Amino acid sequence: MSSLSSHWLPMLTVLLLLLHTSHAWGFECPKQCECHNLRDPNRVSTSMAARCRVNDSMARYNFSVFSPRYTTVLVLQCQGKALTPVNHMFRDLFYLEELVFKDCRFNTIPDYTLAGLTNLKNFSIFGADRLTFTPRLFQKLMNLQNLEIIRSGFQSVPANFLCHSTRIRSLIFSDNEIFTLRDLKNLCLVNATLLGQIIRLDLSYNNIKEITEDFDAMFTGIEMVNFVGNQIETIVNNSCSELYDLTVLDLSRNRIKEFPLDFLEYSDNLMQLGLSHNPISRLFPVFSSLSNLRIFEAEHTHLDNSIWSNLNEKPQLESLNLAHCRLSLINKSVMNKLTSLKRLNLHSNSISRLSPNVFSSNRQLEVLILTNNSLIHLDENSLHGLTGLRHLDLSYNRLSAIHIDAFHDLINVEKLDMSYNELQEIPNSIHPLNRVQELYFEGNQIRRVYKDFFKGMDSVNRIVLAKNLIHVVDANSFARCLNLHILDLSDNNITSVHEDAFEGLKQLIGVSLAHNSIRNIGTALWKQINLSQVHLQNNLIEEIMASNFPDSIKFLNISHNRIRVMRPFTFSNKDTLVEVDLRSNRISRLTKDAISVSHRVRAIPDVYLMDNPFRCDCNLVWLKQLADVRPRKRNGLPYIPDLDDLECQSNNTSWLPTGRIYHISESDFLCKYLDECAADCICCHFDMCDCKSICPKMCNCYRSFDRRSNFIDCTNSSLNDSRFLPSNATKIFLSGNRLGSLSKHSFLRQREMLVVLYLNRSHITDVQNGTFMTLIKLRELYMHDNMLSVLTRETFQGLAGLEVLTLNNNMISYIAPGMFLQIPRLKTFDLSGNGLHTLDPSFMAISSFESISLRGNPWLCKCPLVMALQEMYITHPEVIPHSEEVLCDHEEVINSSVSQFTFYHMFDYDVQLYCLNVTTSGNYSAQPSPVIEMKVLLALAIFSAVFITLMVAIISVICYREELKVWLFTQYGWRVGDDWAKLDDSNRKYDVFVAYTSKNAMFVEHELAPRLERRDPPYRVCLTYRDYDVDISYAQNTINSINNSKRTLMLVSNDFFCTEWFRYDFQINNHDVLKALSDRLIVVLMEKIDKKKLNCDLMFYSRSKKYLKYHDARFWDKLYYMLPKVRGLPLIPQTPESVVSAGELRDQCCNNIAFSKTSLESGYEEINFVRKNVYPNSDQNLYMAPVSQTNCK
């Protein structure tokens, strides 16, 4: 029995600890935050890290919602405006170990902001603005170890502000405005030993110009120093001589030219030294004795070959960077002593030759970079001994000859880069590289690729041969590369690709043949079963089809070619297709089948079509229809991201559409035809068939995609007879012909379909009566620039629907009375440039005028005409354009020209002077002052309209005042006549308490509560299943919730009348509380309720008979209006949708934050925030209003 107990005791202990931990997490992560579980081996229970987004004053955020005992890391990421911390804002988080402010842009921190954080170890500020603070801020931070102030405009160090932080170890003041190191003495003036315990100092990217003489005296225990990106020119003597514990020093990107003699004299433990981007030409004397140095960075300096003598005694050196220096050779004797070297970078020097066996002792060298030197050839032993080399970069040299055994020892090389040399073929010396994975021969002069070039190189997965002189890709050129994944042949002169060029490459996933001269890709790519990416842009391809590309294709770039034809179903079997780029080709006609995609694709592919010369014809109307489909549908067509910007062009005909497809009407997409007959026509074999269209010679005919529009363009065709035009024409252009006289037979065939007719510039001299009798649907008639002289009453007979008529620039001198009665719907009428003296008064009977052009006629100043036109001009001045050019005269001169007139402006003509007491016979009478009378009538009309509008508005406000209140609140946030505002709700914990039954539980938990708690600012909602105390009775919980809530929201359904709310004992025992509830109660009817229950049972709680109805269209607007105004709320809890690692938290928020090992570095596990896992044995009914079905009738 005792052995059994001892066996179960550890497991029981673990279970108790897990139970303790789960109960500690009995809260929900605030809405604006992300919470992450941390596990520290030094703690018995788990701890938590949180990242919160702050977008309002920090005074309104209450961080006490976190569990104080388990919250150890808090990151505050500000959004928008500058936000300043407030005093005591973290007073409840007394176990907090790490605090970060990110992008808050404050310029100061109040003295007591960090009060209570006695366990804080790491404090970071990123993105402040000219930051200043007083020493009192850090007075209680006795356990502070790491302080970071980055990118915050920090200039001066307050005196003694770190004196109380006796455990400080790391100071990071990077990217600020510190000018001198002497300010660091202010960290603690009363205790000089405090600076001596700092082991890490980062002052990178400040404005420091000098390392002062007392630097090593201040930081006696310093181990890591970073001065990168300052303006240091001078290092004073004795400033860095006694840094005994220094291991890392980086002085890169400064202005240092020389070093003092005692620089680093006693820094024997130095392991990393950075001097890059300084104008130094020689090193300091002690450098040669730094025997423990492992990493030396000196790129972009003025060091020359003399540097090799300084490297003579560096057996521990592992990384040497001398790129962009002034070296012309590699010292063989020195390299033989650098036996631990793993990385050597000699990029951009002047090395022209590699001595034999220069690397024979560097068997641990893994990376050798000789880019941009002057190497011409490689001898047999140039690279001898580099058996451990993995990466060799020889690019940007002048290599033209490589010995066949030059790479004999490079048995472990994985990447070889020989780009931009002068190689004319792939060297045979690469054959021993049987482990190479990446080969780069870009920018050479290679002309052909043969099958045996890659013999024995089964492991290669990437070959780059771009920017060479290759003309043809032969069969089986890469057959030996069985594991090849990526092949780049772009920027060559390739004109053809053999159909077996990529035979056997079953692992090939990406091919680039861009920027070549390929005209036909054939089936070379179609055979590759795993090929997913193809780049063919900037070639000469004219046609594509399904057999050009494999069914596995995902990304295809075939832009900037000469594609004119896309065969049907080119992409219909590509089930994995993601994106196709067809921009900048010569596609003028595109059908649906050409770009149709498979119905089996996971997501609708993207197809780009910009910069193609599409024709605006009926074959393209489907593309216009596709532009109107939103959202995207699985209809077998791709998604075209640039569809709204696609343009199409027509031929030289000016009236055909041109522009963006999205803006062109479907009816404007026309197709040209010569002879066409409708599908349902039965008289196609007869010449006079109405449903048959034969385009006349010398004309161009167009039809719309649905054959409802038929345009006949006979402009400037020398026609003299219009009788043989197609009978189903809807728009006819006869401009610029010689029609002479128009008869009744001219348009006899057109009848009911013609809508627009152009007859301008056609030498028409007269129009017989009844010419347009059959054109009952004609809307626009253009007859300007002809030789008409007389218009009879029957000239336009039958055109009752005519809206546009142009007769300008004819020789019309007479219009018969009653002509305007034939065209009562006329809107635009142009009579300018004729010889008219007067008008038939019947034209004033047309009330639909929008534009009347009368200029250029020798009008007589006859009172009826002048007064009628002035009356029209006063009421609608916009109807008569160029009114200042409409002139008249007193004298009637039949054949005179306008230039002989005295030029009275008709609309300035003084009718009171010349037309007083004149009575006209054309329904016009001269009155003493029509202008004054019109103003009086206009004033009366305006007054009446205003009065009626005002009365209607007042009545509407009275009748719909409640709806108006809700609308004003919804639109502008105004609470007009709000009786709820008089209530004193300042001391109540919740904004709203929701009472409901199990019938409405799903609505409350999944819709109502999330809507309220996720508003900005959010509401604090009290829910029965979540916020009731399980240790007291349901009735007492209900009373407590009512007293603690500003409003009570009662969701009433028929079963609600059977709950405790309507039990007699419940109502009697809590009579006072429930009667007072009426002022704060909001009743929502969830379904149709019996009137008896509403008028009797519910009156106990609500004296008002105004209830919200859930099915009301404006239910949510009315509910928000009745809820209290939310101010100064703390962070509102919300269950996180997902939990990510704390490492991701750092990466997403603060890329430069150096979190301490004590808080985040040990390991992580996910936390289940679901309440049923926190209380696994709890009964769900405990959180829901009980319903006693036995009492329901």
From TrEMBL:
Subcellular location: Cell membrane
Residues covered by the TIR domain: 988-1123
Signal peptide annotation: 1-26
Predominant localisation class: membrane
GO CC annotation, single: plasma membrane
Protein family (similarity comment): Belongs to the Toll-like receptor family.
GO biological process terms on file: signal transduction
Annotated protein name in UniProt: Toll-like receptor
Keywords, ordered alphabetically: Cell membrane, Leucine-rich repeat, Membrane, Receptor, Repeat, Signal, Transmembrane, Transmembrane helix
Upper taxonomic lineage: Eukaryota, Metazoa, Spiralia, Lophotrochozoa, Mollusca
Transmembrane annotation, as ranges: 936-960
Entry keyword Transcription regulation: no
Alphabetized Pfam families for the sequence: LRR_8, TIR_2
